[in-house]
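User:
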Amino acid sequence: MISGHDVKYSNYTSKDAAIGWPSWIKPLVWAVLLAILIMVALPTLLYPLTRDQGIYAYIADLMMRGGAPYRDAWELKTPGVFFMYWLAFLIFDRSEFAVRLFDVLYALLSAASVYALAREVFRILPQRQNVASSREEQNTSNYIALCSAWIYAFCYYLLVHFHSAATPEAFMIPFLVASVYGIVRGVRNKRSSLLLLGGVASGFVFWFKPTGGLVILAVLIWAGVEIWRGRWGLARTLSSLMMFALGVVLGLLPIGWYLYGHGLAELLEIWRAYGTRAYLQARGLALGSGPLAMLDVIMRYVRDWQLFVWLSLAGVIGIFAHCRRGSRILPVLRQGTVIVVFLLSSVVAVFLQGKLFEYHWIPILVPMSILSASSVVGLAQEIRGQVGGVLHDMRSIFSVMIIVGLLLWMGYDHLVRYRRVAAYLTGRLSAEQYYAQFDIGKDFSHIGTCRAATYLHEHTKSDETALIWGVEPLVNFLAQRRSPTSYISFYVLVNGEDSNPRFEAWRQDFLEDIQRSPPTYIILVNNDVTPLAPLGSRAQLDQIPAFKRILETEYSFETQIEDYLFYRRRTGTGMKKVSCAMRNLRSPFHTTCV
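Assistant: Predicted structure:
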Protein backbone atom coordinates (compact mmCIF):
# COMPACT_ATOMS: atom_id res chain seq x y z
CA MET A 1 0.00 0.00 0.00
CA ILE A 2 1.26 3.48 -0.88
CA SER A 3 1.24 6.01 1.91
CA GLY A 4 0.06 9.57 1.56
CA HIS A 5 3.62 10.85 1.71
CA ASP A 6 4.61 8.53 -1.16
CA VAL A 7 1.62 9.73 -3.24
CA LYS A 8 2.60 13.31 -2.63
CA TYR A 9 6.04 12.81 -4.15
CA SER A 10 5.33 9.95 -6.55
CA ASN A 11 5.40 12.27 -9.59
CA TYR A 12 8.29 14.36 -8.31
CA THR A 13 11.52 13.87 -10.24
CA SER A 14 15.09 14.81 -9.48
CA LYS A 15 14.93 17.48 -12.18
CA ASP A 16 12.32 19.36 -10.14
CA ALA A 17 14.74 19.80 -7.24
CA ALA A 18 18.04 19.74 -9.09
CA ILE A 19 20.50 22.49 -8.34
CA GLY A 20 21.38 24.51 -11.42
CA TRP A 21 25.18 24.64 -11.72
CA PRO A 22 27.02 26.96 -14.15
CA SER A 23 28.36 25.19 -17.23
CA TRP A 24 31.99 25.84 -16.27
CA ILE A 25 31.73 23.98 -12.96
CA LYS A 26 32.13 20.48 -14.41
CA PRO A 27 35.35 21.14 -16.40
CA LEU A 28 36.76 23.00 -13.40
CA VAL A 29 36.08 20.03 -11.14
CA TRP A 30 37.78 17.63 -13.55
CA ALA A 31 40.77 19.95 -13.90
CA VAL A 32 41.14 20.12 -10.12
CA LEU A 33 40.87 16.34 -9.79
CA LEU A 34 43.49 15.83 -12.49
CA ALA A 35 45.80 18.34 -10.81
CA ILE A 36 45.41 16.50 -7.50
CA LEU A 37 46.37 13.19 -9.14
CA ILE A 38 49.47 14.74 -10.69
CA MET A 39 50.43 16.25 -7.35
CA VAL A 40 50.07 13.00 -5.39
CA ALA A 41 51.86 10.99 -8.11
CA LEU A 42 54.91 13.26 -8.35
CA PRO A 43 56.68 12.11 -5.14
CA THR A 44 56.34 8.46 -6.16
CA LEU A 45 58.67 9.10 -9.11
CA LEU A 46 61.45 9.78 -6.60
CA TYR A 47 60.84 6.63 -4.56
CA PRO A 48 63.90 4.37 -4.23
CA LEU A 49 63.79 0.62 -4.61
CA THR A 50 63.90 -1.48 -1.46
CA ARG A 51 64.78 -5.07 -0.65
CA ASP A 52 61.97 -6.96 -2.45
CA GLN A 53 61.96 -4.56 -5.38
CA GLY A 54 65.72 -5.00 -5.64
CA ILE A 55 65.20 -8.74 -6.07
CA TYR A 56 62.71 -8.15 -8.89
CA ALA A 57 65.05 -5.65 -10.56
CA TYR A 58 68.05 -7.97 -10.31
CA ILE A 59 66.15 -10.90 -11.86
CA ALA A 60 64.68 -8.72 -14.62
CA ASP A 61 68.20 -7.47 -15.38
CA LEU A 62 69.37 -11.09 -15.60
CA MET A 63 66.54 -11.84 -18.03
CA MET A 64 67.63 -8.95 -20.25
CA ARG A 65 71.12 -10.48 -20.34
CA GLY A 66 69.84 -13.91 -21.34
CA GLY A 67 69.36 -15.37 -17.86
CA ALA A 68 66.24 -17.00 -16.49
CA PRO A 69 64.41 -16.64 -13.18
CA TYR A 70 64.68 -19.49 -10.66
CA ARG A 71 67.38 -21.21 -12.67
CA ASP A 72 69.83 -18.29 -12.39
CA ALA A 73 68.31 -16.51 -9.38
CA TRP A 74 66.45 -18.21 -6.53
CA GLU A 75 63.15 -16.53 -5.60
CA LEU A 76 59.74 -17.54 -4.27
CA LYS A 77 57.62 -15.00 -6.15
CA THR A 78 55.81 -16.11 -9.29
CA PRO A 79 57.30 -14.64 -12.49
CA GLY A 80 54.72 -12.04 -13.53
CA VAL A 81 56.45 -9.26 -11.59
CA PHE A 82 59.80 -10.03 -13.25
CA PHE A 83 58.26 -9.48 -16.68
CA MET A 84 56.86 -6.12 -15.53
CA TYR A 85 60.30 -4.96 -14.41
CA TRP A 86 61.78 -6.33 -17.63
CA LEU A 87 59.22 -4.29 -19.58
CA ALA A 88 60.03 -1.16 -17.56
CA PHE A 89 63.74 -1.59 -18.30
CA LEU A 90 63.02 -2.24 -21.96
CA ILE A 91 61.01 0.98 -22.29
CA PHE A 92 62.81 3.36 -19.93
CA ASP A 93 66.30 1.84 -19.43
CA ARG A 94 67.61 0.04 -16.34
CA SER A 95 67.26 2.32 -13.33
CA GLU A 96 65.21 2.94 -10.21
CA PHE A 97 63.47 5.84 -11.94
CA ALA A 98 62.43 3.58 -14.82
CA VAL A 99 60.59 1.28 -12.41
CA ARG A 100 58.86 4.18 -10.67
CA LEU A 101 57.80 5.88 -13.90
CA PHE A 102 56.47 2.61 -15.24
CA ASP A 103 54.60 2.04 -11.97
CA VAL A 104 52.96 5.48 -12.12
CA LEU A 105 51.76 4.89 -15.68
CA TYR A 106 50.71 1.33 -14.89
CA ALA A 107 48.56 2.59 -12.01
CA LEU A 108 46.61 4.63 -14.58
CA LEU A 109 46.01 1.42 -16.54
CA SER A 110 44.78 -0.19 -13.33
CA ALA A 111 42.49 2.80 -12.75
CA ALA A 112 41.13 2.43 -16.29
CA SER A 113 40.31 -1.22 -15.59
CA VAL A 114 38.53 -0.17 -12.38
CA TYR A 115 36.52 2.32 -14.45
CA ALA A 116 35.46 -0.41 -16.89
CA LEU A 117 34.42 -2.78 -14.11
CA ALA A 118 32.45 -0.17 -12.17
CA ARG A 119 30.68 1.01 -15.31
CA GLU A 120 29.72 -2.54 -16.21
CA VAL A 121 28.55 -3.47 -12.73
CA PHE A 122 26.34 -0.42 -12.26
CA ARG A 123 25.03 0.06 -15.79
CA ILE A 124 21.32 -0.45 -16.39
CA LEU A 125 20.59 -3.36 -18.68
CA PRO A 126 18.67 -2.55 -21.91
CA GLN A 127 15.65 -4.54 -20.78
CA ARG A 128 15.45 -2.48 -17.60
CA GLN A 129 15.91 0.98 -19.04
CA ASN A 130 12.20 1.74 -18.79
CA VAL A 131 12.53 1.37 -15.00
CA ALA A 132 14.78 4.40 -14.71
CA SER A 133 12.95 7.49 -13.55
CA SER A 134 15.31 10.02 -15.09
CA ARG A 135 18.30 10.42 -17.35
CA GLU A 136 20.40 11.14 -14.27
CA GLU A 137 19.88 7.59 -13.08
CA GLN A 138 20.97 6.36 -16.52
CA ASN A 139 24.24 8.27 -16.05
CA THR A 140 24.83 7.07 -12.51
CA SER A 141 27.06 4.21 -13.65
CA ASN A 142 29.28 6.69 -15.52
CA TYR A 143 29.64 8.89 -12.46
CA ILE A 144 30.44 5.93 -10.23
CA ALA A 145 32.93 4.56 -12.77
CA LEU A 146 34.81 7.85 -13.14
CA CYS A 147 34.85 8.41 -9.41
CA SER A 148 36.05 4.83 -8.83
CA ALA A 149 38.98 5.21 -11.21
CA TRP A 150 40.01 8.50 -9.63
CA ILE A 151 39.79 7.13 -6.08
CA TYR A 152 41.87 4.07 -7.00
CA ALA A 153 44.66 6.16 -8.53
CA PHE A 154 44.52 8.65 -5.66
CA CYS A 155 44.75 5.92 -3.02
CA TYR A 156 47.54 4.08 -4.80
CA TYR A 157 49.69 7.17 -5.20
CA LEU A 158 48.99 8.61 -1.75
CA LEU A 159 48.42 5.70 0.62
CA VAL A 160 50.65 2.91 -0.70
CA HIS A 161 54.14 3.32 0.75
CA PHE A 162 57.29 3.17 -1.36
CA HIS A 163 58.20 -0.33 -0.19
CA SER A 164 54.79 -1.71 -1.24
CA ALA A 165 54.44 -0.13 -4.70
CA ALA A 166 55.66 -1.85 -7.89
CA THR A 167 54.96 -5.27 -6.36
CA PRO A 168 53.19 -8.36 -7.77
CA GLU A 169 49.89 -7.32 -6.19
CA ALA A 170 50.02 -3.89 -7.84
CA PHE A 171 50.84 -5.28 -11.28
CA MET A 172 48.16 -7.96 -10.93
CA ILE A 173 45.29 -5.46 -10.67
CA PRO A 174 44.39 -4.98 -14.39
CA PHE A 175 44.35 -8.74 -14.93
CA LEU A 176 42.31 -9.44 -11.79
CA VAL A 177 39.82 -6.72 -12.68
CA ALA A 178 39.64 -7.96 -16.29
CA SER A 179 38.83 -11.43 -14.97
CA VAL A 180 35.98 -10.13 -12.81
CA TYR A 181 34.81 -7.90 -15.68
CA GLY A 182 34.69 -10.82 -18.12
CA ILE A 183 32.72 -12.97 -15.69
CA VAL A 184 30.23 -10.23 -14.80
CA ARG A 185 29.63 -9.07 -18.36
CA GLY A 186 29.56 -12.62 -19.69
CA VAL A 187 26.90 -13.66 -17.19
CA ARG A 188 24.79 -10.54 -17.66
CA ASN A 189 24.94 -10.69 -21.47
CA LYS A 190 24.94 -14.51 -21.63
CA ARG A 191 28.01 -14.50 -23.91
CA SER A 192 30.60 -17.26 -23.66
CA SER A 193 33.23 -15.18 -25.46
CA LEU A 194 33.32 -12.76 -22.53
CA LEU A 195 33.77 -15.64 -20.12
CA LEU A 196 36.69 -16.72 -22.30
CA LEU A 197 38.19 -13.25 -21.75
CA GLY A 198 37.70 -13.61 -18.01
CA GLY A 199 39.43 -16.98 -18.11
CA VAL A 200 42.45 -15.64 -20.02
CA ALA A 201 42.86 -12.83 -17.48
CA SER A 202 42.53 -15.37 -14.66
CA GLY A 203 45.40 -17.38 -16.10
CA PHE A 204 47.63 -14.32 -16.04
CA VAL A 205 46.54 -13.55 -12.46
CA PHE A 206 48.11 -16.84 -11.35
CA TRP A 207 51.54 -15.76 -12.62
CA PHE A 208 51.37 -12.62 -10.46
CA LYS A 209 49.75 -13.90 -7.27
CA PRO A 210 48.09 -17.32 -6.92
CA THR A 211 45.99 -16.08 -3.99
CA GLY A 212 44.19 -13.82 -6.47
CA GLY A 213 42.45 -17.02 -7.52
CA LEU A 214 40.40 -16.82 -4.32
CA VAL A 215 38.75 -13.62 -5.58
CA ILE A 216 38.07 -15.24 -8.94
CA LEU A 217 36.59 -18.31 -7.25
CA ALA A 218 34.29 -16.14 -5.12
CA VAL A 219 33.10 -14.21 -8.19
CA LEU A 220 32.51 -17.50 -10.01
CA ILE A 221 30.27 -18.60 -7.13
CA TRP A 222 28.40 -15.30 -7.46
CA ALA A 223 28.10 -15.97 -11.19
CA GLY A 224 26.76 -19.45 -10.45
CA VAL A 225 23.99 -17.94 -8.34
CA GLU A 226 23.14 -15.49 -11.13
CA ILE A 227 23.11 -18.33 -13.68
CA TRP A 228 20.78 -20.34 -11.46
CA ARG A 229 18.47 -17.35 -11.05
CA GLY A 230 18.54 -16.76 -14.80
CA ARG A 231 17.73 -20.42 -15.54
CA TRP A 232 20.38 -20.84 -18.20
CA GLY A 233 19.97 -24.55 -18.62
CA LEU A 234 22.54 -27.29 -18.19
CA ALA A 235 23.96 -27.20 -21.73
CA ARG A 236 24.63 -23.44 -21.73
CA THR A 237 26.07 -23.57 -18.21
CA LEU A 238 28.52 -26.35 -19.08
CA SER A 239 29.48 -24.60 -22.31
CA SER A 240 30.23 -21.39 -20.41
CA LEU A 241 32.34 -23.22 -17.85
CA MET A 242 34.30 -24.90 -20.63
CA MET A 243 34.97 -21.54 -22.27
CA PHE A 244 36.18 -20.09 -18.98
CA ALA A 245 38.45 -23.09 -18.36
CA LEU A 246 39.82 -22.79 -21.90
CA GLY A 247 40.56 -19.14 -21.23
CA VAL A 248 42.46 -20.02 -18.04
CA VAL A 249 44.66 -22.43 -20.00
CA LEU A 250 45.30 -19.81 -22.69
CA GLY A 251 46.22 -17.27 -20.01
CA LEU A 252 48.70 -19.65 -18.41
CA LEU A 253 50.36 -20.58 -21.70
CA PRO A 254 52.54 -17.53 -22.63
CA ILE A 255 54.58 -17.31 -19.43
CA GLY A 256 54.38 -21.07 -18.91
CA TRP A 257 55.83 -21.61 -22.39
CA TYR A 258 58.68 -19.21 -21.61
CA LEU A 259 59.44 -20.94 -18.32
CA TYR A 260 59.51 -24.37 -19.93
CA GLY A 261 63.22 -25.05 -20.14
CA HIS A 262 63.97 -21.66 -18.53
CA GLY A 263 63.33 -22.22 -14.85
CA LEU A 264 59.97 -24.01 -14.61
CA ALA A 265 61.49 -27.11 -13.00
CA GLU A 266 63.32 -24.94 -10.48
CA LEU A 267 60.15 -22.95 -9.70
CA LEU A 268 58.20 -26.14 -8.99
CA GLU A 269 61.02 -27.44 -6.81
CA ILE A 270 61.21 -24.18 -4.86
CA TRP A 271 57.52 -24.23 -4.07
CA ARG A 272 57.38 -27.94 -3.35
CA ALA A 273 60.38 -27.91 -1.00
CA TYR A 274 60.23 -24.43 0.54
CA GLY A 275 57.20 -22.39 -0.45
CA THR A 276 54.66 -24.79 1.05
CA ARG A 277 56.74 -25.53 4.14
CA ALA A 278 59.23 -23.14 5.76
CA TYR A 279 57.77 -20.08 4.02
CA LEU A 280 54.27 -20.68 5.36
CA GLN A 281 55.64 -21.05 8.89
CA ALA A 282 57.29 -17.62 8.87
CA ARG A 283 55.58 -14.77 10.70
CA GLY A 284 54.67 -11.45 9.19
CA LEU A 285 53.98 -8.06 10.76
CA ALA A 286 52.03 -9.49 13.71
CA LEU A 287 54.74 -9.70 16.37
CA GLY A 288 52.69 -11.78 18.77
CA SER A 289 50.25 -14.63 18.37
CA GLY A 290 46.50 -14.63 18.50
CA PRO A 291 43.79 -12.35 17.09
CA LEU A 292 44.77 -9.29 19.16
CA ALA A 293 48.24 -9.18 17.62
CA MET A 294 46.72 -9.23 14.14
CA LEU A 295 44.11 -6.65 15.16
CA ASP A 296 46.84 -4.18 16.10
CA VAL A 297 48.31 -4.41 12.58
CA ILE A 298 44.90 -4.20 10.93
CA MET A 299 43.96 -1.08 12.86
CA ARG A 300 47.05 0.69 11.54
CA TYR A 301 45.77 0.20 8.01
CA VAL A 302 42.28 1.31 9.04
CA ARG A 303 43.78 4.48 10.52
CA ASP A 304 45.76 5.21 7.34
CA TRP A 305 42.85 4.47 4.98
CA GLN A 306 40.08 5.60 7.31
CA LEU A 307 38.09 7.85 4.96
CA PHE A 308 37.77 5.21 2.27
CA VAL A 309 37.15 2.47 4.83
CA TRP A 310 34.08 4.32 6.10
CA LEU A 311 32.91 5.21 2.59
CA SER A 312 33.28 1.56 1.57
CA LEU A 313 31.24 0.39 4.53
CA ALA A 314 28.60 2.98 3.67
CA GLY A 315 28.60 1.65 0.11
CA VAL A 316 28.11 -1.93 1.30
CA ILE A 317 25.25 -0.90 3.58
CA GLY A 318 23.71 1.18 0.79
CA ILE A 319 23.81 -1.70 -1.67
CA PHE A 320 22.10 -4.13 0.68
CA ALA A 321 19.63 -1.50 1.89
CA HIS A 322 18.56 -0.75 -1.69
CA CYS A 323 18.35 -4.48 -2.40
CA ARG A 324 15.92 -4.97 0.47
CA ARG A 325 13.61 -2.06 -0.04
CA GLY A 326 13.75 -1.81 -3.83
CA SER A 327 14.59 1.87 -3.70
CA ARG A 328 13.91 3.96 -6.79
CA ILE A 329 16.50 6.58 -5.83
CA LEU A 330 19.51 4.68 -7.18
CA PRO A 331 18.29 1.38 -8.64
CA VAL A 332 21.70 0.65 -10.15
CA LEU A 333 23.19 0.23 -6.67
CA ARG A 334 21.32 -3.05 -6.31
CA GLN A 335 23.64 -4.53 -8.93
CA GLY A 336 26.75 -3.97 -6.81
CA THR A 337 26.63 -7.19 -4.80
CA VAL A 338 29.48 -8.63 -6.89
CA ILE A 339 31.71 -5.80 -5.65
CA VAL A 340 30.87 -6.77 -2.07
CA VAL A 341 31.89 -10.33 -2.97
CA PHE A 342 35.12 -8.92 -4.44
CA LEU A 343 35.80 -7.01 -1.22
CA LEU A 344 35.15 -9.90 1.16
CA SER A 345 37.17 -12.41 -0.87
CA SER A 346 40.09 -9.95 -1.08
CA VAL A 347 40.07 -9.61 2.70
CA VAL A 348 40.00 -13.39 3.10
CA ALA A 349 42.96 -13.68 0.69
CA VAL A 350 44.97 -11.28 2.88
CA PHE A 351 44.29 -13.31 6.02
CA LEU A 352 44.99 -16.53 4.16
CA GLN A 353 48.55 -15.32 3.51
CA GLY A 354 48.87 -14.50 7.19
CA LYS A 355 51.68 -11.95 7.06
CA LEU A 356 49.57 -8.78 6.66
CA PHE A 357 52.20 -6.89 4.65
CA GLU A 358 50.87 -3.68 3.12
CA TYR A 359 51.22 -4.88 -0.46
CA HIS A 360 48.91 -7.82 0.33
CA TRP A 361 46.11 -5.27 0.81
CA ILE A 362 46.49 -3.57 -2.58
CA PRO A 363 43.80 -5.70 -4.35
CA ILE A 364 41.32 -4.45 -1.74
CA LEU A 365 41.75 -0.96 -3.21
CA VAL A 366 39.66 -2.02 -6.22
CA PRO A 367 36.35 -2.84 -4.46
CA MET A 368 37.06 -0.18 -1.85
CA SER A 369 37.34 2.46 -4.58
CA ILE A 370 34.14 1.35 -6.29
CA LEU A 371 32.16 1.16 -3.06
CA SER A 372 33.49 4.55 -1.95
CA ALA A 373 32.51 6.01 -5.30
CA SER A 374 29.00 4.61 -4.99
CA SER A 375 28.69 6.30 -1.59
CA VAL A 376 29.95 9.65 -2.87
CA VAL A 377 27.75 9.58 -5.99
CA GLY A 378 24.75 8.46 -3.98
CA LEU A 379 25.23 11.29 -1.51
CA ALA A 380 25.72 13.82 -4.33
CA GLN A 381 22.53 12.74 -6.07
CA GLU A 382 20.57 12.84 -2.83
CA ILE A 383 21.78 16.38 -2.17
CA ARG A 384 21.05 17.45 -5.72
CA GLY A 385 17.73 15.79 -6.37
CA GLN A 386 16.16 14.22 -3.32
CA VAL A 387 13.23 15.93 -1.64
CA GLY A 388 13.08 16.05 2.14
CA GLY A 389 12.73 18.21 5.16
CA VAL A 390 15.29 20.00 7.28
CA LEU A 391 16.32 16.72 8.93
CA HIS A 392 17.24 15.20 5.57
CA ASP A 393 19.20 18.30 4.58
CA MET A 394 21.12 18.21 7.86
CA ARG A 395 22.04 14.55 7.30
CA SER A 396 23.49 15.42 3.91
CA ILE A 397 25.36 18.45 5.24
CA PHE A 398 26.77 16.42 8.12
CA SER A 399 27.91 13.65 5.74
CA VAL A 400 29.69 16.13 3.49
CA MET A 401 31.38 17.77 6.48
CA ILE A 402 32.64 14.40 7.73
CA ILE A 403 33.98 13.41 4.29
CA VAL A 404 35.72 16.74 3.71
CA GLY A 405 37.12 16.76 7.23
CA LEU A 406 38.60 13.28 6.94
CA LEU A 407 40.03 14.11 3.51
CA LEU A 408 41.73 17.24 4.87
CA TRP A 409 43.01 15.28 7.86
CA MET A 410 44.47 12.66 5.54
CA GLY A 411 46.08 15.35 3.39
CA TYR A 412 47.62 17.01 6.43
CA ASP A 413 49.17 13.70 7.52
CA HIS A 414 50.95 13.49 4.16
CA LEU A 415 51.83 17.19 3.89
CA VAL A 416 55.38 16.68 5.12
CA ARG A 417 56.09 14.41 2.15
CA TYR A 418 55.27 17.16 -0.33
CA ARG A 419 57.23 19.75 1.62
CA ARG A 420 60.29 17.49 1.38
CA VAL A 421 59.77 17.00 -2.36
CA ALA A 422 59.50 20.75 -2.90
CA ALA A 423 62.62 21.37 -0.82
CA TYR A 424 64.56 18.68 -2.70
CA LEU A 425 63.51 19.90 -6.16
CA THR A 426 64.40 23.50 -5.27
CA GLY A 427 67.80 22.55 -3.88
CA ARG A 428 67.06 23.27 -0.22
CA LEU A 429 67.57 19.58 0.63
CA SER A 430 70.50 17.48 -0.56
CA ALA A 431 69.97 14.02 -2.03
CA GLU A 432 71.27 12.41 1.15
CA GLN A 433 68.96 14.47 3.34
CA TYR A 434 65.97 13.72 1.14
CA TYR A 435 66.55 9.97 0.80
CA ALA A 436 67.31 9.54 4.49
CA GLN A 437 63.53 9.42 5.03
CA PHE A 438 63.43 6.07 3.23
CA ASP A 439 65.45 4.24 5.86
CA ILE A 440 63.12 1.54 7.18
CA GLY A 441 63.85 1.35 10.88
CA LYS A 442 67.24 -0.29 11.39
CA ASP A 443 67.08 -2.96 8.70
CA PHE A 444 67.32 -0.95 5.48
CA SER A 445 69.17 2.20 4.44
CA HIS A 446 68.80 3.48 0.91
CA ILE A 447 71.79 5.79 1.28
CA GLY A 448 73.88 2.92 2.59
CA THR A 449 72.74 0.64 -0.23
CA CYS A 450 73.66 3.23 -2.87
CA ARG A 451 77.05 3.84 -1.27
CA ALA A 452 77.76 0.13 -1.10
CA ALA A 453 76.75 -0.29 -4.75
CA THR A 454 78.95 2.64 -5.80
CA TYR A 455 81.92 1.22 -3.93
CA LEU A 456 81.39 -2.23 -5.45
CA HIS A 457 81.09 -0.79 -8.96
CA GLU A 458 84.27 1.28 -8.60
CA HIS A 459 86.37 -1.55 -7.13
CA THR A 460 85.47 -4.37 -9.50
CA LYS A 461 85.54 -5.05 -13.21
CA SER A 462 82.35 -5.63 -15.16
CA ASP A 463 82.95 -9.39 -15.41
CA GLU A 464 83.73 -9.84 -11.70
CA THR A 465 81.11 -11.05 -9.25
CA ALA A 466 80.08 -10.22 -5.69
CA LEU A 467 78.31 -12.49 -3.23
CA ILE A 468 76.08 -10.74 -0.70
CA TRP A 469 75.33 -12.90 2.32
CA GLY A 470 71.88 -11.48 2.97
CA VAL A 471 68.83 -10.50 0.93
CA GLU A 472 70.28 -7.49 -0.87
CA PRO A 473 70.43 -8.13 -4.65
CA LEU A 474 69.61 -4.43 -4.99
CA VAL A 475 73.32 -3.76 -4.40
CA ASN A 476 74.20 -6.13 -7.26
CA PHE A 477 71.64 -4.44 -9.50
CA LEU A 478 72.74 -0.88 -8.76
CA ALA A 479 76.41 -1.82 -9.13
CA GLN A 480 75.68 -3.89 -12.27
CA ARG A 481 77.63 -6.80 -10.83
CA ARG A 482 76.06 -10.24 -10.84
CA SER A 483 76.12 -12.83 -8.08
CA PRO A 484 78.24 -15.97 -8.59
CA THR A 485 75.37 -18.17 -7.43
CA SER A 486 71.65 -18.44 -8.00
CA TYR A 487 71.08 -18.33 -4.21
CA ILE A 488 70.69 -14.57 -3.94
CA SER A 489 68.65 -14.86 -0.71
CA PHE A 490 70.56 -16.47 2.15
CA TYR A 491 67.57 -17.52 4.27
CA VAL A 492 66.83 -20.56 2.11
CA LEU A 493 70.25 -21.92 3.18
CA VAL A 494 69.69 -21.51 6.93
CA ASN A 495 65.92 -21.77 7.38
CA GLY A 496 63.85 -24.92 6.92
CA GLU A 497 66.29 -27.67 7.91
CA ASP A 498 63.51 -29.73 9.49
CA SER A 499 60.93 -29.17 6.75
CA ASN A 500 62.88 -28.73 3.51
CA PRO A 501 63.85 -32.03 1.84
CA ARG A 502 66.22 -30.15 -0.49
CA PHE A 503 67.98 -28.27 2.31
CA GLU A 504 71.36 -30.06 2.20
CA ALA A 505 71.36 -30.30 -1.61
CA TRP A 506 70.82 -26.54 -1.94
CA ARG A 507 73.64 -25.87 0.53
CA GLN A 508 75.97 -28.08 -1.45
CA ASP A 509 74.99 -26.34 -4.70
CA PHE A 510 75.74 -22.98 -3.08
CA LEU A 511 79.21 -24.08 -1.92
CA GLU A 512 80.02 -25.55 -5.32
CA ASP A 513 78.99 -22.31 -7.03
CA ILE A 514 81.34 -20.11 -5.02
CA GLN A 515 84.20 -22.64 -5.26
CA ARG A 516 83.79 -23.04 -9.01
CA SER A 517 83.57 -19.28 -9.60
CA PRO A 518 84.97 -17.46 -6.56
CA PRO A 519 83.48 -13.99 -6.15
CA THR A 520 85.78 -11.00 -5.96
CA TYR A 521 83.90 -9.78 -2.90
CA ILE A 522 81.87 -11.46 -0.19
CA ILE A 523 79.70 -8.87 1.52
CA LEU A 524 78.19 -9.49 4.95
CA VAL A 525 75.18 -7.49 6.10
CA ASN A 526 74.24 -6.28 9.56
CA ASN A 527 70.71 -5.50 10.75
CA ASP A 528 68.81 -7.29 7.97
CA VAL A 529 66.23 -9.08 10.09
CA THR A 530 63.29 -10.42 8.06
CA PRO A 531 60.35 -12.71 8.92
CA LEU A 532 62.12 -15.50 7.02
CA ALA A 533 65.37 -14.90 8.93
CA PRO A 534 64.51 -13.43 12.33
CA LEU A 535 68.12 -13.53 13.59
CA GLY A 536 69.65 -11.68 10.64
CA SER A 537 72.12 -12.97 8.08
CA ARG A 538 75.36 -12.32 9.97
CA ALA A 539 74.10 -14.06 13.11
CA GLN A 540 73.28 -17.15 11.06
CA LEU A 541 76.62 -17.34 9.28
CA ASP A 542 77.79 -20.01 11.74
CA GLN A 543 75.11 -22.37 10.45
CA ILE A 544 77.22 -23.02 7.33
CA PRO A 545 80.72 -23.75 8.70
CA ALA A 546 82.14 -24.57 5.26
CA PHE A 547 81.16 -21.15 3.92
CA LYS A 548 82.49 -19.39 7.01
CA ARG A 549 85.79 -21.25 6.60
CA ILE A 550 86.08 -20.04 2.99
CA LEU A 551 85.44 -16.48 4.15
CA GLU A 552 88.08 -16.67 6.88
CA THR A 553 90.81 -18.40 4.87
CA GLU A 554 90.43 -16.89 1.40
CA TYR A 555 89.10 -13.39 2.05
CA SER A 556 90.29 -10.36 3.98
CA PHE A 557 88.21 -7.58 5.48
CA GLU A 558 88.52 -4.43 3.39
CA THR A 559 85.97 -1.86 4.53
CA GLN A 560 82.57 -1.28 6.07
CA ILE A 561 79.98 0.97 4.47
CA GLU A 562 77.12 1.39 6.91
CA ASP A 563 75.69 -2.11 7.36
CA TYR A 564 77.75 -3.68 4.57
CA LEU A 565 81.06 -5.37 5.40
CA PHE A 566 83.28 -5.93 2.36
CA TYR A 567 85.67 -8.90 2.25
CA ARG A 568 87.95 -9.15 -0.78
CA ARG A 569 89.47 -12.34 -2.14
CA ARG A 570 93.16 -12.51 -1.31
CA THR A 571 94.23 -14.25 -4.51
CA GLY A 572 92.25 -11.91 -6.79
CA THR A 573 93.88 -9.65 -9.36
CA GLY A 574 93.49 -5.94 -9.78
CA MET A 575 93.09 -5.28 -6.05
CA LYS A 576 93.02 -1.62 -5.16
CA LYS A 577 94.47 -0.20 -2.01
CA VAL A 578 91.82 1.29 0.26
CA SER A 579 92.49 4.35 2.37
CA CYS A 580 91.97 4.42 6.12
CA ALA A 581 89.25 7.02 5.63
CA MET A 582 87.31 4.67 3.37
CA ARG A 583 87.63 1.86 5.93
CA ASN A 584 85.67 3.95 8.41
CA LEU A 585 83.06 5.29 6.00
CA ARG A 586 79.75 5.96 7.73
CA SER A 587 76.55 7.72 6.79
CA PRO A 588 75.40 10.51 9.12
CA PHE A 589 71.83 9.39 8.55
CA HIS A 590 72.14 5.65 9.28
CA THR A 591 75.09 4.51 11.38
CA THR A 592 75.82 1.02 12.58
CA CYS A 593 78.93 0.08 14.53
CA VAL A 594 80.30 -3.46 14.58
